[in-house]
């Protein structure tokens, strides 16, 4: 049995089961009481005996070389224990720039004196207290040999990247776009820009690392425990089974905790250097560089439509940025592969290399950036055709995925349009902009955006144990990022084992347990849930065999498929008056417990036959001050179809969170890069604007009924990311409808609205 800290085992109590139990029920959060009482331990809450504090020193230039660090001054501080620099860092087993797999991003681990972006780690100060380590880092007073920084979309020569996103082709087309444009009755061509954004989960990256000889224990927020374990193993040249990673609770992930980052590895190196446990936590401003971001984009869309307002051509080109030393390219154009049925579609990307950290997957990577441009362009096209933007979408949404030609759940999308529009009151919308005012004279506008996100599956495993007392244990390295995974997965575990969820003990978040796959790509519930379901089914099959083969059982002769499991009992399918409790079956067989295993993975045959996406339609209202240009989102209704809903309370919360992020994308969020220094100018929550309560209006997420039998056996699609995709465009389109002004640079700030 693995060594599991007490906070990493959860049992549902009666208090959680307010509405019955198991799949489909809106159970409250299993971890809610732990969260509000401080009982949920985050990585930085760990304090092993003898632990020291490490603080990063980061570069204040974006390109050049570190020429001097005053290590002597830092070491002279009475509480500073050591300073780790390129001169004394522990040796690694491989070059941290070696790309051992497509997702082994290059890490800056003090391997040289080069500076490639602002806020790159250049030293680590280790001290007895956090304050001393912070002071020591300041005493280093680095000097640089600086080169001019290049941090903008046009700073360097552009090129065609080899692939975009996680390995998608850079250019894709179907049909002849130029011919489609040439024959179109109406055409538009418009260029949209999106700003760089930085992942800012409430909890920054943090690590507590403790070596015991060549064994390593790390507490760190990780969306992918086995990925982190494997990456650390190769960097330090030790076997993965000597590395124990624990990550029960993440204060948000959003993609920046998917792969272990340079600063986290530096914490492990500091612990090795000093021979004591070390804690390293990023300061907020240190999140703006070494741990990924969403790159800026400039997207040009050319659309053509015939005289019936049917799309004849859709061309989507994106220019984006990556770092000078690694490859990640925001796949923004690819959103145009799935949504609208144009006779011809072409998507393409180009990129420049600039002096920033490497961009990375950030919540709906590609879909969010691409969606705000595509949904704006669709709105502009509808206006050019003189028809309502909902009517235009109802004519043009794809019945089969246009680029692949595969069928998908387009009926669900139609239901989202219809149900969302009815709830919002869309039919009262005037066609022309600038027609509505509220009682205070504010301009009112209504906008629509279509939401979509792929339904992905990764590989996962789980282990189930049915104990002699009839209670169940589920073991899988699932983890809670705030999305409600533990609650939903316990519900799935309960149904898999035929128990009430109050009788399930979930053991989670430790790399010693069955590998439950990543919590990313909006796929954690589908992926881990499928493995958990299958582990439960394996136990039930063994239990059924015991009962149905035993002539002392009332189930004797029913056959394995002839029983069903529910509430801790097996019932004869054809005669439910004949049943037996799990405990009785085990007891009679003299078996202490039954263990079952489950796995999951994408169904390759189904994936080649069907396109798999969740869908939605988002309707937004904004109010704009006609004199000052101040904008407020006042109402958003999103209707989403995402397959089977395990827990509607958690799902609504996820969707609403995504919609808030969409509001943020449209109106608030941007990293301002200083072209002279190459530094982000607003690396803090005062100036990097995200919605606060006053910015968040009435938000409603409608769950549209959908049964998709192809995505996975449980019919689950993800809900973590889709909420952003429709919302950002809906808000942008509402601003246009309120004002008649089309701002094509995001976020739509007050100055941009007044300028346009
Ligand atoms: Mo997400 S960008 O898969 O955490």
Q: What shape does the CA trace take? A: globular
Structural class: alpha+beta
Q: How many strand segments?
A: 31
If you compute it from the alpha carbons, what radius of gyration comes out, rounded to the nearest whole angstrom?
A: 27 Å
Helix content: 25-40%
Bound molecules: dioxothiomolybdenum(VI) ion
Explain how this protein is built.
The chain is of the alpha+beta class and 756 residues long. It has 16 helices and 31 strands. The strands form seven sheets. Strands 4-6-2-15-12-13-14 form a seven-stranded mixed beta sheet, with helices on both faces. The protein has a six-stranded mixed beta sheet with strand order 10-18-17-16-11-31. Strands 1-23-22-21-27 form a five-stranded mixed beta sheet. Strand 28 and strand 29 (631-641) form a beta hairpin. It is globular and about 80 Å long. Residues 223, 253-255, 258, 361-363, 365, 520-521 line the site of dioxothiomolybdenum(VI) ion (MOS).
Quick description:
The chain is of the alpha+beta class. α7 crosses α8 and α7 runs parallel beside α15. The longest helix is centred in the last third of the chain and has 25 residues.
Task: For the structure shown, list the relevant keywords.
single chain; 756 residues; alpha+beta; disordered N terminus; 6-stranded mixed β-sheet
Fold topology:
Elements: E1 9-11, H1 32-37, E2 52-58, E3 64-68, H2 71-76, E4 80-84, E5 114-115, E6 121-127, H3 130-139, E7 143-146, E8 163-164, E9 168-169, E10 172-174, H4 177-182, E11 186-194, E12 206-212, E13 215-219, H5 225-236, E14 243-246, H6 262-274, E15 278-281, E16 297-305, E17 311-323, E18 345-354, H7 367-385, H8 389-396, H9 410-424, E19 436-437, E20 443-454, E21 460-467, E22 472-475, H10 485-497, E23 504-507, H11 524-548, E24 563-566, E25 569-572, E26 575-581, H12 582-589, E27 593-600, H13 604-609, E28 613-624, E29 631-641, H14 648-667, E30 698-703, H15 722-739, E31 745-746, H16 750-755
Parallel strand pairs: 2-15, 11-31, 13-14, 17-18, 22-23, 29-30
Antiparallel strand pairs: 1-23, 2-6, 3-5, 3-7, 4-6, 8-9, 10-18, 11-16, 12-13, 12-15, 16-17, 19-20, 20-28, 21-22, 21-27, 24-25, 25-26, 28-29
Dioxothiomolybdenum(VI) ion (MOS) binds at residues 223, 253-255, 258, 361-363, 365, 520-521.
